[in-house]
Amino acid sequence: MSNEDKYTSIRVKRSTVEELKSIGRKGETYNDIIRWLLTHRPKRRVAKKDEKKLWK
After folding, report:
1. Fewer CB in a 10 Å sphere around the end CB: N or C, the chain?
2. Is residue 23 within a helix (H) or strand (E), and if so which, with residue range?
3. For 16, which DSSP code?
4. 29: buried, middle or exposed (CB in 10 Å: 19+, 13-18, 0-12)?
C-alpha cells in the first residue's frame, strides 16, 4: 500500500458526521462521500498569473 492509499484521522464535529451520513448511501464510507463531494463541487475561479495584477 502506497502512502497515498493509507488512512489518516481527521477531526470533524458530530453534526458534520450526521450530514455526511445523510448524503451517503448504504455501504459507502466517509471517504467515498468526501471524494464524491470533492469531484462534484462547484468550480472556483482561480486567477491566472497575468490576472493577479487585476485583483490587487
Report:
1. C
2. helix 14-23
3. H
4. exposed
- Over the chain, what is the mean pLDDT? 83
Quote the pTM value. Answer: 0.64
Choose among 35, 41, 40, 34: nearest CA to 19: 34
CA-CA-CA-CA torsion for 47, 49, 54, 56, nearest 10 degrees?
90
Q: How many domains does the chain have?
A: 1
Q: Mind listing the pLDDT tens digit for each residue in 6-27?
A: 889 999 999 999 999 999 999 9
Kindly give, in sequence order, each residue whose CB lies less than 8 Å from that of residue 32, ignoring residues fewer than 6 positions away.
Answer: 24
